[in-house]
Write a structure and sequence with these properties.
- With about 90 residues, the protein is mostly helical.
- The chain is flat and about 60 Å long.
- It has one domain.
- Helix 1 runs antiparallel to helix 2 and helix 2 packs antiparallel against helix 3.
- It has 3 helices and no strands.
- The N and C termini lie far apart (about 45 Å).
- It is a multi-pass membrane protein.
- InterPro entries: TMEM120A/B.
- Belongs to the TMEM120 family.
- Pfam families: TMEM120A-B.
Length: about 90
């Protein structure tokens, strides 16, 4: 999980630099990376008692967060494709 924390931290820093340089990055995309950083940090620090299994709360919470982000991305892409089709 440490690599996930590093990955999302580097994504968030990179996108903040891009915004300062004038890129048009949607705020929800940056918030997604901050949320993923928090979830990775919680996953790193959450104490697991006993033998860890594949269906732990830790894995489910991280999975739900990732899936909710994918749903938001899908909604955004559908919305933009509808707008692009309407402009043609």
């Amino acid at each position: 999980m440490a690599w996930l924390l590093f990955l999302y931290t580097s994504f968030a820093l990179r996108e903040n630099v891009l915004i300062v340089n004038g890129s048009d990055i949607r705020p929800w995309w940056i918030y997604h990376h901050y949320l993923a950083m928090v979830m990775a940090l919680v996953s790193l620090t959450w104490e697991i008692k006993g033998q860890p299994d594949c269906y732990s709360k830790q894995g489910w919470n991280f999975s739900y967060g990732g899936q909710s982000c994918k749903v938001l991305q899908c909604i955004y892409r559908i919305d933009t494709s509808v707008k692009d089709y309407a402009l043609e």
